[in-house]
Amino acid sequence: MTDLSSVTVLGAGSYGTALAICIARKGQRTILWGRDHDQVEEMQQARENTRYLPGCQFPDLLELEPDLSKAVQASDTVLVVVPSYGFAEVLQQIAPDLRPEAGVAWATKGLEPETGRLLSEVATDILGHDRALAVLSGPTFAKEMAQGMPTAIAVAANQPDFVDKLSKALHCDRSFRVYLNDDFIGMQLGGAVKNVIAIGAGMADGLGFGANTRTALITRGLAEMTRLGLALGGKAETFTGMAGLGDLILTCTDNQSRNRRFGLAIGQGKSVDDAMKEIGQAVEGYRNTREVVALAKRFNVEMPISEQLYKVLYEGKAPMQVAQDLLARAQTSENSGA
Ligand SMILES: NC(=O)C1=CN([C@@H]2O[C@H](COP(=O)(O)OP(=O)(O)OC[C@H]3O[C@@H](n4cnc5c(N)ncnc54)[C@H](OP(=O)(O)O)[C@@H]3O)[C@@H](O)[C@H]2O)C=CC1
Ligand SMILES: O=C(CO)COP(=O)(O)O
């Protein structure tokens, strides 16, 4: 199994499967690895991921591979699509098997648990400074992508050649438009913060509030994302682009979002545990609320919405009290840093 033009996707959840379907549908050999051997076997038989992406048939060029080493050795483009809490573990596992020239990209949206590091820092630590690295981010629900609905995303990398290569592998004139972005930091930060704000938007709707509240949260959430992103070295334009405002709007307004649905359940009075069980898939914003708030403190950035969400998720504060406390904050200029 060696083919220079193939792409290996690691992670057979909803998004890994959707990306693998999109790449294979373009006519590119694509290898999909999942850690659950039984699930991989079942997908092979059904030519469908009945657990995470039911109803989306696999193109012929999509191959299933249960052996991680073989999957990694097969391609010079490896796309990691596991949740942020499994990211470092997967990179450690694949490091010995990567081809010397292979680039590693990820579609994971989040920060490293506990440390709050950007995933590019985690990847550089494990794979070294010379390895080509890239991130994909933008408003892209797995199911709509897999169904071939028109979708746009952005890609940023630490090496320009890898951005080109990756965007060519993904871009499809019929349905999947890939924008290039040179802001590796901002792209990662946007994807992590939007999940936190989406929990807040869901929570507001769960409390019975309406479009005014949701839109205020999106707008002020964007201000929080931008402040933190700029403090970390990101570019302002990124936060009004695909990985910023684009993904905020998508995730805060549509119930396909797990983060939004998680917030809805909490707003309706469910416990964190029950809400998590109800979703049954990755809810990145839950853990990342903690990391985002810690990062904001470290960089001395004000993020009142994220801080209040932290209190609900980790300190048991009532969502309605959070709404009242946010409204009761001292009046401020819209353009100030708070
Ligand atoms: N779904 C979407 O629409 C989008 C998702 N994303 C991002 O993609 C990432 C993955 O999310 P998504 O696919 O949706 O999540 P899902 O919950 O649908 O699936 C998660 C997948 O990751 C696997 N997994 C979890 N931990 C590990 C690990 N340590 N090693 C290997 N595999 C692991 C799970 O395996 P198992 O089943 O065995 O637990 C499962 O296959 C997230 O960061 C998310 O934010 C980005 C854009 C859109
Ligand atoms: O990131 C996503 C769409 O761009 C998916 O959002 P959720 O993880 O909230 O489902």
Automatic annotation (TrEMBL):
Residues that coordinate or bind NAD(+): 11-16, 142, 258
Residues the entry annotates as binding NADPH: 14-15, 35, 52, 109, 142, 258, 284
Catalysed reactions, as listed in the record: sn-glycerol 3-phosphate + NAD(+) = dihydroxyacetone phosphate + NADH + H(+); sn-glycerol 3-phosphate + NADP(+) = dihydroxyacetone phosphate + NADPH + H(+)
GO biological-process terms attached to the record: carbohydrate metabolic process; glycerol-3-phosphate biosynthetic process; glycerol-3-phosphate catabolic process; glycerophospholipid biosynthetic process
Active-site residues, as the UniProt record annotates them: 194
InterPro entries referenced in this protein's UniProt entry, alphabetically: 6-PGluconate_DH-like_C_sf, 6PGD_dom2, G3P_DH_NAD-dep, G3P_DH_NAD-dep_C, G3P_DH_NAD-dep_N, NAD(P)-bd_dom_sf
Alphabetical keyword list: Cytoplasm, Lipid biosynthesis, Lipid metabolism, NAD, NADP, Nucleotide-binding, Oxidoreductase, Phospholipid biosynthesis, Phospholipid metabolism
GO CC annotations, alphabetized: cytosol
This protein's pathway: Membrane lipid metabolism; glycerophospholipid metabolism
Subcellular location: Cytoplasm
GO MF annotation list: glycerol-3-phosphate dehydrogenase (NAD+) activity; glycerol-3-phosphate dehydrogenase (NADP+) activity; NAD binding
Source organism, top-level taxon: Bacteria
Binding site for substrate: 109, 258-259
Any Pfam family matching the protein: NAD_Gly3P_dh_N
Binding site for sn-glycerol 3-phosphate: 109, 138, 140, 194, 247, 257-259
The protein's role, per its UniProt record: Catalyzes the reduction of the glycolytic intermediate dihydroxyacetone phosphate (DHAP) to sn-glycerol 3-phosphate (G3P), the key precursor for phospholipid synthesis.
Membership in a protein family: Belongs to the NAD-dependent glycerol-3-phosphate dehydrogenase family.
Classification via PANTHER family: GLYCEROL-3-PHOSPHATE DEHYDROGENASE, GLYCEROL-3-PHOSPHATE DEHYDROGENASE [NAD(+)] 2, CHLOROPLASTIC
The protein, known as: Glycerol-3-phosphate dehydrogenase [NAD(P)+]
Species this protein is from: Aliidiomarina haloalkalitolerans
